[in-house]
Amino acid sequence: MPSKLTRISKHLYVHHGVVNVGILINDDKALLIDFGDGTVKDNISELGVNSIYSVIFTHHHRDQAFGFKATDSERAGIPEQEYKWFSEVEDYWNNPANRWHIYNFHPHNLMLTESVLITDRYKEGDSLRFGDATISVIDTPGHTDGSISYIIDVDGQRVIFSGDLIYGEGKIWELYSLQKAEAMVSDYHGFLGSRKQLKQSLLKLLNQSPDILIPSHGEVMTDPENAVETLIDRLDICYDRYVAISALRHYFPEMFSEYEGRSGHMPIRQGKPVPSCLLHYGTSWFIISQNKDVFVIDCGNNAVIKQIKEMQNKGEIKDVSGLWITHYHDDHVDAVPEFLATFGCPIHVSEKMADILENPRGYRLPCISPSAVKVSNPTKDGQSWMWNEFKMTAYHFPGQTYYHGGLLVEDQNVKMFFAGDSFTMSGIDDYCSGNRNWLGKGVGFDRCLELMEEIKPTHIFNCHVDLAFDFTDDEIKMMRSNLAEREKIYGELFPWDSANYGMDEFWVKCYPYEQDVISENTVEIRVDITNHSESEKKAICRPVLPKSWGIDVKPKSASITAKSEGHIAFSILIPKDIQPMLYVIPFELIYDGLALGQFREAMLFVKKT
Length: 609
Ligand SMILES: [Zn+2]
Ligand SMILES: [Zn+2]
Prior knowledge:
binds zinc ion, alpha/beta, 3 domains, Metallo-beta-lactamase, Chain A, 6-stranded mixed β-sheet
């Protein structure tokens, strides 16, 4: 038997590829559960199978189905609720609401790049027979909103194909799919927001008394109860550790009332008065010097510009002589182009995020704004300059997002630190898993807190909070030890050798994410891969171009040093006479020997010559 197959019973096998594919056999026909890249087809003849009767899918993610064509099987069945995400995916990709100002992450964008033909739609209560086997459908949302599981009674056993609800004993594949609105917040604020739904679905599986659980990604589980209970316990601990120092408690304390006073939870601090040289407006801070010049931090809205003009008219301030942008989120940058057109001052931005502001189409990230601006001063970490009586020092501040800066503004009396959205009085802002918050010593919030220990600011400012605050040495110590603990416990939650692969949705990304191109021109697309591991890793990658283009691009490989970003670049000659439209180009990836399928994508807008 080929090693890619596991025999579950006489009529049931699993093929291990990009995803696990169930193979249910009835004479010379098979019914498949999920499909992956389709390599399962090369192995079924060994089992005496000549044709595929049906392929039934657990959920819409691209890795389940990217190899599937209508000609592969007589029938194709999917979760009723996810019908659109199989058969109308072009609408999804062409809708700018799924591209810019992204605050909602459902459906998740690991979407097929081309629609497939569907014959059957399944929902809870449906059942079908295939040979001697009975297949019953149950709704099991959590990993995606419309995920279903298939309960298969065959050869005297009960086996459940549970999609990506669980990876193995106590493990899940990644957590960014679980980012979801709950209580009073949007998806953006809902870190692990679908954990309750996921837990309910897992308990629903146990209620069916399965002998075996088979995940889409992961290991065949022969002790489902233990596997599920371990996962539920771990999710509870991981969420508790997140809440313990979360900045979100300041904005939505009602959401966390059941956690109040728990051990290891940092008490929420009181704010303190703002120095007289500062003014808070919208998501902006104005620093006003003795000569009445003003230096502005962030500009998310035209009202800021209006406010400055009014103050100028009243003689309260004079010239606008600088702008610092804390991070790329739309509520901090949307009105920057107009701000610069109005005041024409220099713009200072951490070099780590300057490119997002100059070329936002290059990125797909939460809350990203399409407003592009030219950065006049991309700042290095630790770079200082004088602005009137103040000394300003810029830092890369990988807090709320990796693409974030911090600005220290000091004179003889105060050390004011503008932390963007990274902190509130209740802790750190890491509630959006799409923002690339890394765990580990010297990276992510650990780096930000280390910097706070070094600088010891007298006042910390958040752009959404109109008071100043600070942290005691003990509080900083507590937050850093919480993060160190989290690196370990989140590490146990995922099958990867670093927690960050499960946390950081964009550890693989295409650059530029989106671009225009004209037929017969060459386009360059780079795949950026962050190796979060302690050792060098090999990556092999290739773009998958539309069949109609008649081009096959060979895979390329790269060795990526531990804890660094590696790149694999492709140049693609766009053929003549292709239809001008948006093409979503998926990229296949093999990382450290693990085939991840069409893991990420880039957008090409082919324009008329
Ligand atoms: Zn999935
Ligand atoms: Zn923000």
